[in-house]
Recover the amino acids of this structure.
């Protein structure tokens, strides 16, 4: 997982609340055998509509999503995070997230920041006035800046630390690399080995 | 005696259970302040259903498999049991299997593919190779990994992201389980098997009764079981809600292991046995919960409903929802009876079946097939009943053929198939048709488990055999010329 300190990119307004995981990635895509390459599955239902925001020019390459409250509700599928990440999103800002979705995001390097509804409205208005405008999200200061307006966002200390250090669950465990190696060094010879026996 | 060379973890000097000993000997890091422990994994079994995304995750992060020598893969859930030399017809099954083959090749994981003599159900393959042994930790992306606990190993199923975690680190962050002793004392009547013990245990403690626990099966009836029987019992720990089940290792365990391809040899064997003898639960060790079962009382057991806890003795009748005081259980019974199309009060032995499935990781080892064959030998199956016999692994199939069991099966009028999960879950073409009723030696009787609309009665191999002969649920004792002597599954001669 890459370390996250600041990110600057096109911000896209998703003016809907209660965007559930079925809308983020419809169930038919769950049959796949990969954990990557879900970019085409993101919002697949909505993207059939040429008028959908992400089908419009300044937003095709958006990397920051500003969504209405209760983003990521529904099933626990990690695929929702994979789809956002694969499409190129690095950050989602919303006044409220579903807990499981938020937990999954932190593990996959997708920053989810909670902002106030007022700030969201203000960002949306600024984006409408200037479609395709870039936003800078700074995790060190927990702020999002668009033009001359800066707003703070919330993220818990633990998730913030993991993102700053670029640690997924595996990365976290591998911080104990030395202890794992020590344990391996003292494992008894009789323990099983799957390598073919002569 | 704890791991003598451990310089990281100090083991307090107190009586400990088998589960605690194995756990503590695998502590890489002891979790502080409510954090999970980091546990080392000795053996990681991999199959095609839960591994693709795990390998893809490794690839995305550029991570290798940490210990290829502790990892082994086989194809089982999706493999056909007929025409195994032809391409797999179902696209989803084919893609999963092809993906496993590509991943194994790319990452260097040892894989036993369809057609290989070590291919088979992952939980049959591990023990048969001698990889599963006492005092180790075993994981697999499959809930029935509990099977391996029969050797006194700590074995449990994990999810796909945990599969990736183990592939990358050979460890898992885990909170310790609580312990439950299930003591089965006494002597089983002839015709009563390991399967009947575990079905009775689940009926007693319920499908949620084991939640959060590792179950340790103890007592004279468990000690008298063969390794195959112990595996049958540990296999279904998950149906009691537990993540793992264990049996303390003893001479039966050592005898089973001795000489198997991956069992320790020479000095390693002696060291291992010396350590294994220290594993059984200490006198005075405390369990978090205890259950007692009287083995003398047990009879062949069958399920009537749609969860493995809905079972009765074969000589009983279908219960009525009003027999259940708990309103949830009553409602569940009503729904189950409707799905199963059964009337309360019907004697279980009068229920006719359309199919008999002899297989699955619960009961598809050589001993199970021998038991089944000992009943059907020289007889004919009931008219109109489809009987499918699916060995748990290619090696079991070969062994059975060397003993002539395939001939007994086909003379009986049953189908002799290639190894795999088969009709246990119907991911391959082996499925029940809607409304069909099956006596099955597998472990789950959920709605639609063996095919959409299919109805499953869980039974032992002996009951499966007698049922195939009579056409209605039956035990060998119910047969007209009941065999007086038969190979009893799960019980040492
Ligand atoms: S035989 Fe059945 S229970 Fe066992 S691993 Fe296969 S599908 Fe799962």
């Amino acid at each position: 997982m890459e370390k996250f300190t600041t990110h600057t990119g096109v911000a896209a307004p998703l003016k809907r609340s209660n965007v559930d995981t079925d809308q983020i990635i419809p169930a038919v895509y769950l049959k796949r055998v990969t954990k990557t390459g879900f970019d085409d599955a993101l919002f697949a239902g909505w993207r059939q509509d040429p008028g959908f925001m992400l089908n419009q020019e300044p937003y095709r390459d958006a990397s920051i999503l500003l969504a209405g409250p209760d983003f990521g509700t529904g099933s626990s599928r990690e695929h929702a995070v994979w789809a956002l990440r694969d499409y190129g999103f690095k950050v989602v800002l919303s006044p409220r997230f579903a807990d499981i979705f938020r937990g999954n995001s932190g593990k996959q390097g997708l920053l989810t920041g909670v902002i106030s509804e007022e700030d969201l409205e203000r960002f949306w208005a600024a984006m409408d006035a200037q479609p395709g405008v870039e936003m800078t999200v700074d995790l060190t200061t927990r702020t999002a800046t668009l033009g001359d307006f800066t707003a703070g966002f919330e993220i818990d200390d633990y998730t913030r630390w993991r993102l700053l250090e670029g640690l997924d669950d595996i990365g976290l465990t591998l911080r104990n690399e030395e202890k794992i190696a020590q344990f391996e060094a003292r494992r008894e010879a009789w323990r099983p080995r799957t390598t073919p026996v002569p | 005696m704890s791991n003598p060379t451990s310089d990281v973890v100090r083991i307090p000097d107190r009586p400990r259970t088998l589960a605690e000993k194995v756990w503590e000997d695998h502590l890489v890091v002891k979790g502080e302040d409510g954090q999970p422990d980091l546990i080392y994994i000795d053996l990681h079994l991999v199959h095609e259903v839960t591994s693709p995304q795990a390998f893809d995750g490794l690839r995305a992060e550029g991570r290798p498999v940490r210990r290829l020598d502790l990892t082994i893969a086989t194809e089982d859930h999706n493999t056909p049991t007929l025409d195994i030399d032809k391409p797999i017809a179902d696209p989803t099954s084919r893609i999963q299997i092809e993906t496993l083959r590509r991943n194994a090749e790319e990452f260097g994981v040892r894989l036993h593919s369809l057609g290989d003599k070590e291919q088979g159900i992952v939980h049959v393959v591990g023990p048969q190779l001698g990889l599963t042994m006492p005092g180790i930790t075993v994981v697999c992306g499959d809930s029935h990994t509990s099977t391996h606990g029969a050797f006194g190993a700590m074995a449990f199923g994990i999810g796909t992201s945990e599969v990736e975690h183990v592939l990358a680190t050979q460890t898992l962050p885990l909170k310790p389980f609580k312990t439950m002793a299930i003591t089965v004392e006494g002597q089983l009547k002839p015709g009563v098997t390991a399967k009947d013990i575990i079905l009775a245990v689940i009926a007693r403690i319920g499908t949620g009764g084991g939640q959060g626990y590792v179950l340790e099966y103890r007592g004279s009836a468990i000690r008298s079981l063969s390794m195959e029987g112990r595996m049958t019992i540990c296999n279904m720990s998950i149906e009691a809600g537990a993540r793992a089940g264990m049996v303390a290792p003893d001479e039966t365990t050592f005898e089973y292991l001795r000489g198997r391809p991956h069992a320790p040899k020479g000095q390693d064997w002696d060291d291992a046995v010396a350590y294994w003898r220290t594993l059984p639960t200490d006198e005075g060790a405390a369990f978090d919960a205890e259950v007692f079962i009287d083995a003398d009382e047990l009879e062949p057991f069958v399920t009537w409903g749609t969860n493995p806890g809905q079972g009765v003795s074969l000589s009983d009748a279908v219960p009525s929802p009003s027999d259940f005081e708990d309103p949830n259980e009553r409602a569940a019974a009503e729904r189950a009876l409707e799905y199963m199309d059964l009337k309360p009060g019907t004697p279980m032995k009068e229920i006719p079946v359309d199919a008999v499935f002899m297989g699955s990781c619960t009961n598809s080892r050589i001993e199970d097939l021998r038991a089944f064959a000992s009943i059907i030998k020289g007889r004919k199956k009931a008219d109109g009943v489809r009987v499918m016999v699916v060995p748990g692994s290619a090696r079991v199939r070969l062994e059975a053929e060397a003993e002539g069991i395939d001939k007994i099966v086909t003379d009986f009028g049953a189908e002799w198939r290639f190894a795999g999960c088969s009709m246990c879950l119907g991911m391959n073409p082996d499925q029940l048709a809607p409304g069909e009723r099956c006596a099955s030696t597998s472990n789950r009787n959920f709605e639609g488990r063996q095919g959409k609309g299919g109805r499953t009665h869980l039974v032992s191999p002996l009951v499966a055999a007698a049922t195939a002969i009579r056409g209605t649920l039956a035990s060998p004792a119910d047969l007209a010329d009941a065999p007086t002597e038969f190979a009893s599954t799960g019980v040492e001669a």
In short: The pocket of iron/sulfur cluster is lined by residues B 76-77, 121, 123, 142, 144, 360-361, 421, 424-425, 442-443 (CB under 6 Å). Chain B has a mean pLDDT of 94.
